[in-house]
Amino acid sequence: GQNIDQPTEMTATEGAIVQINCTYQTSGFNGLFWYQQHAGEAPTFLSYNVLDGLEEKGRFSSFLSRSKGYSYLLLKELQMKDSASYLCAAPQGAGGFKTIFGAGTRLFVKA
Amino acid sequence: SQTIHQWPATLVQPVGSPLSLECTVEGTSNPNLYWYRQAAGRGLQLLFYSVGIGQISSEVPQNLSASRPQDRQFILSSKKLLLSDSGFYLCAWTNGQGVKLFFGSGTQLSVL
């Protein structure tokens, strides 16, 4: 089957580090994406992993383990503006044309 | 550079009325086009995608339909809206297989 699971909500403190986990089951693997979505807005691309390991991009990093069907998004030096939903997503099928999303993790950053 | 336009931003429609949401992409050719719906506090549900003019794949049986009359135009329609059609509708495009999505600004649809 095709399934993407991630926690519903997380809370963290400004300046801290938070890790958002995602487990997935896909029909054919075409990489794993993370998007950020602020309330009432469209999602925006954060990161893409197609090989195992850690991809670092500024304060945000994303990790992938294909054998475990597992990814995480790491946010460092949290800022209030990081309060948003974080969506784990994976293109499905042989052509990878269909991207399926997890339900998203709502992150609340408190002062 | 590529841009995606989606309108209207908000829409309030009575139950049983028709719907037409339009999305256009500029600055690229032969994009893959998508319609997603997001219920309040929920994830994105893929409704339709298209890899070319006149080619529509439907993901979920429902009260909606999609059309692609031109290469960079994608339209979401309904003949008679239901209460359950309320949600945040997002158009998106990619330029290949398994690559990142670029989203339009979304349409918040309320069916009353």
What this model shows, in words?
The complex is a heterodimer of chains A (111) and B (112). Chain A has strands at residues 3-5, 9-13, 18-25, 32-37, 44-49, 53-57, 60-65, 70-75, 84-92, 98-101, 105-110. Chain A is mostly beta strands and 111 residues long. In chain A, a hairpin with a 5-residue loop joins β9 and β10. The model of chain B has no long low-confidence stretch (mean pLDDT 92). Chain B is globular, with a radius of gyration of 13 Å. In chain B, β5 and β6 (55-58) form a beta hairpin. Helices cover 0% and strands 57% of the residues of chain B.
List keywords for this structure.
heterodimer; A: 111 residues; mainly beta; 6-stranded mixed sheet; 5-stranded antiparallel sheet; globular; B: 112 residues; 7-stranded mixed sheet; 4-stranded antiparallel sheet; 11 strands; 57% strand
- Looking at the structure, what is the overall shape of chain B? globular
Distance between the termini of chain B: 38 Å
Mean pLDDT of chain B: 92
Helix content of chain A: under 10%
Low-confidence stretches of chain A: none
Total helix count of chain A?
A: 0
What global shape of chain A is seen?
A: globular
Q: Give me the strand/helix succession of chain B.
A: EEEEEEEEEEE
Strand content of chain B: over 45%
Q: Count all strands of chain A and give the number.
A: 11
Main pleated-sheet profile of chain A: 6 strands, mixed
* Low-pLDDT stretches of chain B: none
**Largest chain interface and its two residue counts?**
A-B, 24 and 25 residues
Q: Report the C-alpha radius of gyration of chain B, rounded.
A: 13 Å
Number of helices of chain B: 0
